[in-house]
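Intended use. Records like the one below are meant for learning the mapping from a protein sequence to its folded structure. Do not use them to infer anything beyond what is encoded.
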Amino acid sequence: MEIFLSLVNGKAFQEWVGEALMADHEAE
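Structure written out for the chain above:
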C-alpha cells in the first residue's frame, strides 16, 4: 500500500512540477 501511495504522490508531484515549470517559462 505504501508503494501505491508513493506512486500516486510521485505522479502528483511530477504534474505540479510540470505546471510550475510551464508557468515559470511563460513568465519570462
